[in-house]
Amino acid sequence: MQMKIKHFRMLIAASAILFGSLGCHTAHKPNARLAVPSQAPPAPAQQSKSTKSTKPAIAQKTQPAQKNEPATEARTQSSSAEKPKAAAKPDPVAELILKVEKEYDAGLNQYNSGDKDGAKEHFDRAFNMLLESPAGVRSDPRFQPEFDRVLDHVNKLQLAAVQQSDAAPEQKTEPAPIDEANAVTNYPVDPNLKAKATAEIKSTHSDLPLMMTDQVASYINYFSTRGRPTLEHGLTMSGRYRDLIEQILKEEGVPQDLIYVAQAESGFHPYAVSRAGARGIWQFMGSRARAYSLHHDLWVDDRQDPEKSTRAAARHLKDLYNQFGDWYLAMAAYNSGPGRVQSAVKRTGYADFWELYRRNVLPRETRNYVPIIVAVAIMAKNPSQYGLQTVIPDPPMKYDTVRINYPVDLRLVAECIDVSLSELQELNPSLLRMTTPKTHFDLHLPMGTAEKYQTTIAAIPAGMRLWWR
Length: 469
Known about the structure:
By secondary structure, the chain is mostly helical. Helices cover 59% and strands 3% of the residues.
């Protein structure tokens, strides 16, 4: 990988010499010896119409002209010598541009036929011809416009290729665990398990109200048996983001135990997607995400950004609590929407989740949603009681953040800092493509690599960071 970067830096160094030398070369005056004579040689003297003139007469007429003959002959020889030289002089700049155009056209044909790798080879050769050309060619005023034109056109082709694809092949998805749990209905209640859990609640510290009902006991039984792999996987993943999530929840002034909403929703998987189309750790739908400034376009989906989505979720849940004055109702509204919960409250006159549950005025998924979260919280807070003490959380994901305002290929970023592409993708789950967007983007890099990246990428022109070579 370093050899590629080193070779690329050599090409860039040549480019830097080129750009630095443009000003001084173009300021020089033209060489005098290349100037075209401003006056043509004099025409030869006209002969007499009579070819039978006497010799003395001819001698007398031509004698004055012979005095100028040496000068005329010299100018004639000089003119005749210069004309063939000017006609035969090669134009290296024009020849280079012709060769570059030939490579570019060949690459374009390959690109249009669907052979992207073949196109890239031709485009690379075109760039190398330009960057490795002699200094005299690089100082010509025709050179820079050609370089810029080829670079601009290749970059546009790359962007077009990205826009034509529906999704990057590297983009991963995982079914949202909440769908699986919500599909469970009337799971049996284990009386012994319920009695045990009821006793545990009394000694369990939580900043959310923990209540034991048959519905909660049913889901404790489910996560102890059939749903156990899902619960364990989520507890393992939680190690990556727990510190980040708890810090943001604290900053936003909401209960720390709301983290179990994320556990139930996605199992802390940034790529989790529900059947309804909700995405990310906090399972935002598109319209709700936009209301909390989570951006989504061809390149980025902020719903998959653990940091941004956590802050949005904390603010949304806080707004719902301020609306309903109850965390269970706030969680129900997070699932089904505040309008639906508000309608149920108005219809029954009860601002109490369990009362709304008993009256069956909420959607089935919402009726299951709160018991699922309460069950997960009880089990996660009492791991030894449920045999979860052997689950080892992943280490926290720590990273440097570099705010960039240019597009760059992730493969180039990986080479700049000597890390794997997969590691970069894990740190930047909101990226939907292999490139960052044109606009500002918070690029996450492994801890301690930000300075190395900035130093290395600075040697590569911004226009060449997208078409990774």
